[in-house]
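Re: weekly structure request thread

Next one in the queue (340 aa):
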Amino acid sequence: MIYTLFNYAFDQRKRTFYDLEERVGSGGMGEVWRGRHQTLARPTAIKLIREDKLAGVDTDATRRVLRRFEREAKATAALRSPHTIEVYDFGVTGDGHFYYAMELLVGLDLQALVEQYGPLPAERVVHLLLQACDSLADAHEHGLTHRDIKPANLFLCRLGPSGDHLKLLDFGLVQEVQPVAPSSKLTAEGTTAGTPAYMAPEMIVARGGVDRRADIYALGCVAYWLCTGTMVFETESGVEQIVEHVKTVPTTPSARTELPIPPALEAIVMKCLEKKPGERFESAAAMAGALRVVPLSSPWDTERADAWWASWTAPAVAAQLVPAMVRTTSAGQLTQTQTG
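Done, posted below.
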């Protein structure tokens, strides 16, 4: 059954440009639909916050949800890197539902990729990191830090003739690049913003503020995951991971995998993971420059990428066609969970 976005709930008076074809995820206040633009016939993923679902939530929690929702849509729409997910539209429906429409991708995130297929060869790691650097460089040039770089927010797909095309998702925690007070690093629920396994030390202690180099640290954690299939610090809890990020020097990736890792690539990963921001790469562009000169036994070229994707089975479940699902915590904060 197909629903028109403005009409599928309670108000029949207005229309919009999207037909909702299938709900592929929901939870708390959020829903994700697979839809289609009515005149362009373009497949679209549509993220919604239902107005009726906000009725039982306190005013402050509602404001936080809507503020993050709007911030994510506007921040993403301002960026132009081909490796950032594209937002088509954002607004409020006639019956009070907040929504934004974004491109619909078919593939899997880097969390699922490694969980299902194991650590990646060095040449593929370099190929993917270069694309992530392109997206981050664009965001940083626009004065934004992402603050939640992690494998689940990096989505791998085929885009037109391009295999192994990476897209950066979820700008819901984005903020302008500027020093911040320690208290502003906490969410209203009293927890540090971000994901413990990928958080830079300065995001935890907030000494001297947080800037784009926090994203560089997190991308180093992602690189570690791609090379080894393990997190930088394997602990029993997120709290323990946070402590390790602040105090412990990580084990080198080559010590935790049997796959060969070029010394130059390992040096890049370890430089990203320096505790002091000033000892990391100054920018995503600088990191990309180092990645381009890593000696590789063979490149990850179109032929190899095409062969891999030819062996990959597209998901049968419709929900897996959308890069991210929305869910809400009991406190009402809008977050994302992977769909792989």
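The radius of gyration is 20 Å. The CA atoms of residues 1 and 21 lie 6 Å apart.
Next request, please.
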